[in-house]
Design a protein that fits this description.
Two copies of one chain form a homodimer.
Chain A lengths: L4 H8 L3 H8 L7 H14 L5 H8 L4 E6 L10 H11 L3 E6 L9 H4 L7 E4 L8 H8 L3 E5 L7 E5 L1 H14 L5 E6 L10 H12 L9 E3 L5 H12 L7 E4 L2 H13 L9 E5 L3 H4 L6 E5 L1 H17 L7 E4 L1 E4 L9
Parallel strand pairs in A: 1-2, 1-3, 3-4, 4-5, 5-11, 6-7, 6-8, 8-9, 9-10
Antiparallel strand pairs in A: 10-12
Helix pairs in contact in A: 1-2, 1-3, 2-3, 5-13, 8-9, 10-11
Chain A binds a DNA duplex through helix 2 and helix 4.
Pfam family, one (chains A, B): LacI
Keywords (chains A, B): DNA-binding, Transcription, Transcription regulation
GO molecular function, one term (chains A, B): transcription cis-regulatory region binding
Amino acid sequence: MTTTLRDVARHAGVSVKTVSNVVNDHPHVSDEMRRRVREALGALGYRPNLAARTLRTGRTGLLALVVPDVEAPGLHGLVREVVRAATSQGFRVVVEHLGAGTGRPAPSRSGAPPGVDAVLLGADPVPPGLVDAHLRTGTPLVLLGESGDPRCDQVCVDGTRAAADAVEHLVRTGRRRIAAIGARPGLASAPAQPRILGYRRALRRAGLDPPTGYVRPIAEDRHEDGYRAARWLFAREDRPDGVVCHSDRLAVGALRAAADAGLRVPGDVAVIGFGDSAEGGYSRPTLTSVSADPALLAREAVTLVTARLDRPDAPPTRITAPHAILPRESTRPAG
Amino acid sequence: MTTTLRDVARHAGVSVKTVSNVVNDHPHVSDEMRRRVREALGALGYRPNLAARTLRTGRTGLLALVVPDVEAPGLHGLVREVVRAATSQGFRVVVEHLGAGTGRPAPSRSGAPPGVDAVLLGADPVPPGLVDAHLRTGTPLVLLGESGDPRCDQVCVDGTRAAADAVEHLVRTGRRRIAAIGARPGLASAPAQPRILGYRRALRRAGLDPPTGYVRPIAEDRHEDGYRAARWLFAREDRPDGVVCHSDRLAVGALRAAADAGLRVPGDVAVIGFGDSAEGGYSRPTLTSVSADPALLAREAVTLVTARLDRPDAPPTRITAPHAILPRESTRPAG
DNA sequence: TTGAAAGCGCTAACAG
DNA sequence: CTGTTAGCGCTTTCAA
């Protein structure tokens, strides 16, 4: 049924090795041979058996992209760019949801999923124990995001700086009462949570320490969470005149809350998001956003993988990807 | 370095076969054996070599999800749901961009990507020749979308009915001049393009045949394409009072165009989209949308795959997934 | 119920 | 430059 190298070899009247050489573009094959083999390859419709190749070489050519959920916020464009970057560097991408496995144990528990050359982890925060589990398996792991681990390769955005930049942007447009939406409830108290840290730091530097309750936790990262948090903020006596949202999705929810509360954006309140989603570019008003370049992140991550596969014992590399503020209508200077 | 079945067997003092039986939960193993083997498995940190297993069994446990682009519109929620459905049925998902391969030939040309048990194709329209290429490889192919092919399994939405429903919905809210945004330029003339067909049919039945130019082609499926098409429509003498957009993304672009043109939605013009994206639920105004349930689509598709793998020669199955209109602000009855 | 051995398709070491 | 061959780790007859 399926054509093997041997079939092709027989058909072309050459040895298996030669066919293999042709298939893999190895040198030291005469043009005449190459031509003949190519012909046989085509005639028989040869398709390489990846499993056999993998068994022999130890390389699958597969990268696992492990994320909480493909559509999780903060991931805008990342999946696409990882697929692109991986493809262009000769890998294919297996998408895996964190903790999704009903059958086998979830990757979060067992460490690296089997059958891949490396794992890209796009989860913030990194589930506890995951890094250790990986380290035990020996499969290279690259962290993508804002939180890191000194023991593995990572390409990350400086969340503290990014949040501070967002605050400074709002201050520059004349805002004084700046709130934040998007702290993870479980981590709200951890002072190290990078964005909250940056938010507080920037406000302190500006002499604008926020009142209690200005940092709103959310359950999940959905429009409605942003909406609810914003409604709550807008109902306060000391209503904020600027809101930093930890994703564009939350920010769009906040925009709607402002409208429902009869507030004008940016007149009464400015809103800034994270992630530069397409949605934010077409919301009303259009949304200012802080973002890194997902294509860059993805390329760097895949490059890290190849480097790691070449030298498994090199010390971990940490790459910091730049971020930028994309100013749009939602933060136009007031007045 | 890596632990093999033989290592475990030696460690437990049993044969390879017995270890294999335990790993695969085969019956006919005494409890005592099982216990001892389990222990050895754990102690040595055994991890099965998927490549070897695949080479032997012919099954990779991998499904390729081939799409134009992970973030392509019309795919809202599909990738996530395919990953979920596949996981729960024991598969993993390799995401492949159509024609993305810079190295090897793109899957659109060579047929099925190698090393997967089946291919799910989420591309509308299906690239010409792709189905033939697949058929030649023998890898099962399941089509997801609105266009189909009688030669392979498919789970699809009735695009003609869906578009007709959208038009009827607008008519019911009192609209008379109904335009459409989203015809693919290359196919604009093909009368079979299902949505355009449904659009025209429903209008004809309502005695509201559209004037020339009311069907706007777009280059891609982005906000700005919807925006531009809508601006053009709104600048006409016979400005439409209802617009059917072939994706939510286009529709959100159209909403913005309406605002920029000084038109109120739904007062002056109603807008309806396709896909029930989260974005449409939080746009201003919120967007009415026609959609199928992506989770259902995905589950059916994976079920089709397993059925096909069990009986390769069964006749192709076609499943039609239901769709529904989710009425929101953008199509509230006028007046 | 368990063990021994063959072989899936491929690559790489070695021989010619 | 080309051919022969061993063996990657696993499943699975077949025999005990």
